[in-house]
Amino acid sequence: MAEPTFILNGKETPFNPGQTILEAAREAGVTIPTLCHLKGTTPTGACRVCLVAAKGARSLVASCSTPVTPGMEIRTDSERVLRTRKLVVELLLSSGHHNCIVCEANGNCRLQDLAYECRITEIKFPLPEKCYPTEDENPLIVRDFSRCILCGRCVQACNEVVVNRAITLGYRGSESKVVTGGDGPYTDSECVFCGQCVEVCPVGALTEKKARGMGRPWETQKIRTTCPYCGVGCQQLLHVKNGRIAKVTAVEGAEPNQGRLCVKGRFGYDFLYSEERLKTPLIRQESGEFREASWDEALDLVVAKFKGIIEKHGPDAVAGVSCARSINEDSYQMQKLFRAVFKTNNIDHCART
Ligand code: FES
Hints:
Elements: E1 5-8, E2 11-14, H1 21-27, E3 51-54, E4 61-62, E5 73-75, H2 79-93, H3 110-117, E6 141-143, H4 153-161, E7 167-170, E8 177-180, H5 196-200, E9 206-208, E10 221-226, E11 235-241, E12 244-250, H6 263-267, E13 282-284, E14 290-292, H7 295-313, E15 320-322, H8 328-341, E16 347-349
Parallel strand pairs: 1-5, 15-16
Antiparallel strand pairs: 1-2, 3-4, 3-5, 6-9, 7-8, 10-11, 11-12, 13-14
Bound molecules: FE2/S2 (inorganic) cluster (FES).
The site of FE2/S2 (inorganic) cluster (FES) has 12 residues, from loops.
């Protein structure tokens, strides 16, 4: 059966049944800007930046939430579409305090990019007089409601991506706000501080607190690595300036975490810079005090202790627990050591539940 087609900017274009106009256009290489669209979640059609013209329709339609139908005629580049897109961005810019110079998201802001792409040179409409105060009381996430454009991406990410359901859109009209249950701070809510809301925020409404002043996006080197915490092996990007991590984000579309991170993977990197970090082996002396030792001395001591216990009490008198931070290969070698060399099955992994 022939593939269904529609007309995109005057050109016959194939599409897969069930696709939205946005998906089909992107597959055909046609760019339609978006703000609220979050891949893999239910479209909300909240921002209206993706409006396109459909022949026969009275008003422009949101391409992110409108399915393509055979023969549909769509224009993404007409004078009306471009003018309306510019107006939508102007209205969003006027919805809050988007003073880019002092914004943590400067250089990593979709609204800023769109304002530039639409060639906006001034804020046309009066700014709102009052905004909800910034929530700055937890150590990880800053919620600046004066920069929130109510696109709802954070809500979609919390509800549909990580399925934690800690936030939703509350109140009405100009009072609208992203709220937790009871509209309290994150710390008093169901929030688990995975930071997925920060990851998807297209503006500076949600930012990593520890990243403040640590480096602008264009100053940081993005280093892809594997999260050191557990055996899942989540892929993450370290944003590094002058050898220090400014923040950690997920690698979009990469297995196994598909752009998600947990609280430890995203925020738990302070141990790297801890003054208390152990850098050499320590041996406990008779007095109970620790003293620094070389690796050779420490390993010789461990070997001697294991040998002594096994000789005296048999192999089942020893046991091993491999570290959750170890790679699979290390854990494999550890069980080989215990089973094949020590002759005991007393071996486990500390992340096993
Ligand atoms: Fe379609 Fe926001 S991206 S309405």
